[in-house]
Design brief:
The protein is of the alpha/beta class. It has a single domain, classed as Ribokinase (UDP-N-acetylmuramoyl-L-alanine:D-glutamate ligase), CATH 3.40.1190.20. The chain has 11 helices and 13 strands. The strands form 2 sheets. It has a 9-stranded mixed sheet, with helices on both faces. The longest helix has 16 residues. The protein is globular and about 50 Å long.
């Protein structure tokens, strides 16, 4: 069987990005953390697929065209005539970028466990989702956990990104469900801000201990411009940030996740994959939008000097 390397589950969103503070003009692009992630992985050479629901609308059709152009398998994408595809806006100011969402009642929030494309999940080597995938609705959370159960039963590795959005759900519920998903994960991604909110810890090593304590085997602690820390439970490696001219950090964490999984699927060890992903995420921040600046493998290799 010609297995897919990565199948991702979540919500895609059409993006409107303000390219300059105060500018009334917005650049239309694409977003949604798990969609960004799977495109990043595809651009780094992985065979990928996506599982979601999209509206039977123009934005949904735009996403189908995007995924097909990027080589993402769309067998797991369902059209929903009774709901819309989500939209968000990005503005930029002195404190960085801010998001405004139009996602209530989106098609993706209507994902259900009984609709999962189990054959597609069973083809995958990694099955990935995020905290946002779970936060958009109770049935979406159930769908993610059911997908993870199916993936593990088929011998796939679960990958999970905490991607905490406090506006989407109460912190107590987020802690419980993110903890459950992380405990199923062979690869768990989290940021300093997420780990601080979820664990109550301030120290990076304590955060890693917390993540392993949930049951996660490998943990990637993303530290923004400062780089990342990778841990396999026995060894930890601090990876320094890469100096670039950053203009928009939207989707950098998603890029890190996708690049890591692409390299793990290609046979890299965890720490080698994390160094590659750290450079890929830095390159992503040099352009506007969540998807357009996602780098391809040759550009990452040039930045790494290889």
């Amino acid at each position: 069987m010609n297995r897919l390397d990565i199948v991702s589950i979540g919500e895609p969103m059409v993006e409107f990005n303000q390219t300059r503070p105060g500018d009334p003009h917005y650049l239309q692009g694409y977003g949604g953390d798990t969609s960004n992630m799977v495109i990043a992985a595809a651009r780094s050479g992985a065979r990928t697929g996506y599982v979601t629901r999209i509206g039977d609308d123009e934005f949904g059709r735009m996403f189908l065209a995007l995924w097909r152009a990027e080589g993402v398998d769309t067998r797991g994408v369902a059209l929903d005539a009774g709901a819309h595809t989500g939209v968000y806006f990005v503005t930029h100011g002195p404190r960085g970028h801010a998001f405004s969402y139009l996602r209530a009642g989106s098609a993706a929030s209507r994902m259900r466990p009984q609709d999962l494309p189990l054959e597609l999940l069973r083809e995958a080597r990694f099955v990935h989702a995020s905290g946002i995938s779970m936060a958009i609705s109770a049935c979406a959370a159930d769908t993610v956990l059911a997908a993870f159960d199916a993936a593990r039963a088929a011998g796939a590795t679960v990958s999970f990104d905490s991607n905490l959005r406090p506006g989407l759900w109460p912190l107590a519920r987020a802690r419980a469900l993110i903890g459950a998903a992380a405990g199923m994960a062979g690869v768990f991604f989290t940021s300093m801000d997420d780990a601080r909110a979820l664990s109550g810890m301030e120290d990076a090593d304590a955060m890693l201990d917390w993540a392993h304590g949930l049951g996660a085997r490998s943990v990637l602690l993303m530290r923004g411009a400062e780089g990342a820390i990778a841990s396999d439970g026995a060894k930890r490696e601090r990876i320094a940030g890469v100096k670039v001219e950053t203009v928009d950090a939207t989707g950098a964490g998603d890029c890190f996740c996708g690049a890591t999984l692409a390299r793990l699927a290609a046979g890299d060890a965890l720490f080698e994959a994390a160094r590659y992903a750290n450079a890929a995420a830095a390159l992503k921040t040099t352009g506007y939008g969540a998807v357009a600046p996602l780098p391809r493998a040759d550009a990452v290799r040039r930045l790494l000097g290889g």
